[in-house]
Amino acid sequence: MNPQSNSAHHDQSVRRFIRRLAWLLAFRQSLTFVTVWCFLWGAVALVLRAASATTRRQLLWGAIGIAVAAIAAAVVSRRRLPSLDSVRAMLDSRNDCGGLLMTGADADLGAWQTPEITLPRLRWRKARAFGLLAASSAFVLISLLAPVRFAATGASRPMDVSREVENLSAQIEALKEAQVIEEAKAEALEQKLDQLGQEASGEDPAKTWEALDHLNDAVEKAAKEAAEAASARRERLARAEALAEGLMAGGDQLDSKTMTEAMRTLGEMTREAVKENESLASDLSPETLEAIKSGSLKAEHLKDLSKALSQNKSALNQKLSKLSKSGQFGQFGRINPNALKGGAQANRRDNSGLARFLKENAEKMSVDEATLQWCAGKGGVDRGRGDAAMTWTDGSSEKDARFKEKVLPPSSVAGLNDSQLVGLSASAPTADTSGVAAHGALNGAASGGGSAYTQTILPRHRGAVRRYFDRPQSK
Amino acid sequence: MTETILQPEEINPAVELANRALAELDRILLGRSELHRLVVAGVLSRGHILLEGLPGVGKTALVKALGGLLNLQFSRVQFTPDLMPSDILGAHILQENHDGRRAMEFHPGPVFTNLLLADEINRASPKTQSALLEAMQERSVTLLGSTRPLPDPFFVLASQNPIELEGTYPLPEAQLDRFLFKLNVTGADVETLDRIISTRRRGEPPAPNFVMSGEELRLIFSVMDRVFLPRPVSLYISRVVAATHADSGEAIDDVRDYVGYGASPRAAIAMAEAARAYALLSGRPTVGFDDVKAVASPTLNHRLVLNYKARFDGVSSRSIIAKLIERIDETGIKLPRDVLIEA
């Protein structure tokens, strides 16, 4: 083989190796890109199928991405291809050409012959790449083939509000039974509740909860208003009953004026009660009813009236008691069942003393006011309601509430300022420590002197010191 | 293609001469053919060589044998602490002329020779060591303002003892960098020792059968200059030298951990020259990667300045260079990790 053909042959070998490498790199890169695309495609398909009614046919357009990925991989892998010189150098090194093959590209080899080149084998550890591709392909298939209902369960999932609907329905039923709300209104509420239970959806739970809250508020409001009205009616019935019982028991204690006023007041109360309670009229005898209407209520009507009022009050109590026993309204705290029961208990009182109370207060207040005060109670924890007049007993003792005043003796230092000279002695003074507190840090300081240092004067010098201070002052 | 590389008929005489000298060196000194090959490669590259080894391993004998092989002027200087620069370079001496007038006359020192054996170079003071700097790099000597060229060719073959450090002055980095090779001369194996004591009376080496003349040496040099260095190989040399610096992209962990200062550009030049000589000794007109790998360690080992951590960890510059050569791919082909090129 002549040198030129030898060189051309080697060039062909180099290019052949680069082509092989290019194919391998392109295939490998394609595999990587397609794998990534498949994972993306599958994820997007899942999201679209779950969120909207995207069909499989539409999602299959994603297959175009595979071709795009393959083209992109070819471009990228081409950029990563080694240069011709690098491959020539690699082949030179592997075939022990000693630089001749590399030189052949830049210079004329002349008579030199490059040894025969053996192209090395390219090895690709492809298990991982194929494994990932298989996984991504499976993911795409599952995303596309999974049943729609499975994918779309989240979209049309109904919201379970059956318990709340049941509670509200029971409340409405209880109100209807207690005749607290009208039949038509109860029906309208129940219809609304049914509609809400059917339309409750997981797509917008806030809306459902809001509607339920609104309905619940409406029912509770109606119940509360009805309960308050019934309670007020019961109060008025109780007051009329108290007055009737009081007059019946001690009407003879009253003077004619007070008695007349009391009868008139009772007549008015009863008229109002008849208007509010239809059943009261049927419970009264015709004579008594006529007397009430005509305003000519007499003492002989009192027994019949008291009985009818008592029956009506009991019926009202039963209704409220039934309402409270149903237990439906305590849930949200708007109507307290205990309060309903308590009201019923509080109206049971002995009214035999009312006549005396009316007599005592005939000048101070009207019969209506006196009756109201009598029924309201006397105040205190166990003596009536909160709006009753308060009563006070003796004031509290201040014993043990104040410190006993005690004058303390003056301090020893202050005492020294007021000391008086009673005499002088030549001997050493004796310190009297009785009753003198220790001074701590100021121990040894002259009283009022302000200095912490005191010079001790020995007894034998004291005479000289005294003479010095007792010397006549020079003018 | 414009250039034609050395043809067989041009290169073969030089290869034959060089290999003959090498064979003769192998015959005179037994058992160190690889060392001899490097020494000859160093001489062919016109580089200075530093031989390091324990006393008695044959450093001086090697240089003397080389001096005997080459028909060149040969000087030997035994370096001692009291050696002065003028003892090497020469000095101006006041002389009286025949007409009775006195003038300063230059008396050249032993450096004015072709082959200078600087024995135990590290025993001289730094001042004297520095006197060789200009001579080694520029092949000239400047004294009292006048520069005198040294004979061509000029080689310094220095020896030093790595132990007995008391009273020695380690060569400065600037001077070490001027040596093409630093070769480690080790002891001989049993077989070689047996051959020495059985064939050499009192260890005296035989006289050389072949002496290379100056003309023949110049012929080899002229051929050496035409040995072709392909671009991928020069790129490889550059990458290896650059990788000895910690801030290089191809630096390995050992370089980052242990190398304070990497090799200089002079190292790259030296590697290229030495690789050319190695290729010539192999009879090739072109330099291959294997030639570079063969001369990498002797060219770079004295040019890497290791830090104290390397001393503590017992890491040598030779081991770092070996790892560097192993890690750096000569072709520069970067393939994905899962794609391999197999034989």
Q: Can you describe what's shown?
A:
The complex is a heterodimer of chains A (475) and B (343). Chain A has helices spanning 3-51, 56-59, 64-79, 84-94, 100-106, 127-145, 148-151, 162-177, 183-199, 205-250, 256-276, 278-283, 286-294, 302-325, 337-346, 354-360, 367-376, 412-417, 459-470; one strand at residues 121-124. Chain A has 475 residues and is mostly helical. Among the domains of chain A are: 3-151; 231-376, no CATH class. In chain A, helix 1 crosses helix 4 (84-94), helix 8 (162-177) packs antiparallel against helix 9 and helix 8 runs parallel beside helix 10 (205-250). Chain A is flat and about 155 Å long. Chain B is of the alpha/beta class and 343 residues long. Chain B has 2 domains: 7-226, P-loop containing nucleotide triphosphate hydrolases (Rossmann fold, 3-Layer(aba) Sandwich), CATH 3.40.50.300; 227-332, Orthogonal Bundle (Helicase, Ruva Protein, domain 3), CATH 1.10.8. In chain B, 44% of the residues lie in helices and 17% in strands. In chain B, the strands form 4 sheets. Chain B has a 5-stranded parallel beta sheet. In chain B, 41% of the residues are buried.
Which tags fit this structure?
heterodimer; A: 475 residues; mainly alpha; B: 343 residues; alpha/beta; Rossmann fold; Helicase, Ruva Protein, domain 3; five-stranded parallel beta sheet; two-stranded antiparallel ribbon
Our measurement of the CA-to-CA distance between the termini of chain A, rounded to an integer number of angstroms, reads: 148 Å
Number of strands of chain B: 12
**How would a textbook summarize the main sheet of chain A?**
none
Please give the alpha-carbon distance between the first and last residues of chain B: 31 Å
Radius of gyration of chain A: 56 Å
Query: Which range best describes the helical content of chain A: under 10%, 10-25%, 25-40%, 40-55%, 55-70% or over 70%?
Result: 55-70%
Task: Report strand % of chain B.
Answer: 15-25%
Query: What is the CATH top level name of the largest domain in chain B?
Result: Alpha Beta
Low-pLDDT ranges of chain A: 330-334, 436-442, 444-450
The count of helical stretches of chain B stands at 14
Give the overall pLDDT of chain A as a whole number.
77
State which percent range the strand residues of chain A make up.
under 5%
Structural class of chain B: alpha/beta
Overall spatial form of chain B: globular
